[in-house]
Amino acid sequence: MRVLIVGAGLAGLRTAEALRDRGFDGELVLLGEEVHLPYDRPPLSKHVLRGDRPPVYLRAEGDYADLRLDLRLGTTVTGLDMADRTVTTAAGPVAFDELVVATGATPRRLPGAPGQVLRTLDDCLGLAPLLVPGAVIGVVGAGLIGCEVAASARAKDVEVHLVDVLPKPLVRVLGDQVGQRIADLHEGRGVHLHLGTGVAAATRTRLELSDGTVLDVDVVLEAMGVTPATGWLEGSGLELADGVVCDQVGQAAEGVWAVGDVARWADGLGGSFRREHWTSATEQAATVAAAILGERQPVTTPPYWWSDQYDVKLQGLGEAHSDDDVLMLEVGPKSRPLALYSRDGRLTAVVGFSAGAFVFKLKDLIVARAPVADAVALLKG
Q: What CATH architecture applies to the domain 2-106+226-292?
């Protein structure tokens, strides 16, 4: 049996590793569009961008022999033929028995794409030399990438203008209270916030905002989120709806699976989700590998994410929504902010500011949808 994995990022490589770990002895092919060996993306907006450390590769070059992996880098896939069980590349069709789609996502762009983006290692290596002391950067989008780049730029004494059409950073997911805490964090480090306003016009060195503000900058970073990389799957017969639509173990069709940022999985409750987090990619990879080999094990752990901004590590566990009820607490001897999210009095998620021990303390209560009062009691106990 040949398993073909399209996408050589974290989700794709971890799927290959999980298959071998589970004893798969068939042919394993991994296609990657980039020429680099698979690398870790989270450090790109932080340590690598600041120049604190080199890129982090997911596996040393000499370790690939152990995987018995046919790794084909610099290969762009342009189509899928379900009838012939092949994908199309410039070098010709590649056949498969089982296909794993792991093509990730692509950044949203401003009209005309006048600025830089930060998604790949090459993007990072192109942006880093522009962040020099005294430079001015306009960051469009106050999500995780925008906020992390703003923090990294301030660490290099770069003047930062952070722009978002929403009234608070990350407010669409984390709500007003946590969004305000993040806004205060950046404003306290000297970031100029332009929130609740969009971009009316942009060039490589100029942003005209919808409130009339004009910003002259040395570089524009477009950090407005991503869209799943599913263009090559159009017309294939797969269901596409903001990602490849899958069941609870990542199966999109007979012999076709999807993992990572490109995948929309059923949640078992009549809904679905698409998660863009490191931990989710690794969990989905393990789940799909098991399912390919005949063992269906839906993910049951609550989703986890983190973000490093300045000296603060934001950590979230569970499914937070902007319309949840939110109870803000201060925990530990240093009074770290901690937000408890709930619906109908039941705990759904927690977000902490450098409060990791307290975040993970609530894992079982989140899984059990315990009363918020139980969470408060546990934290105070």
A: 3-Layer(bba) Sandwich (3.50)
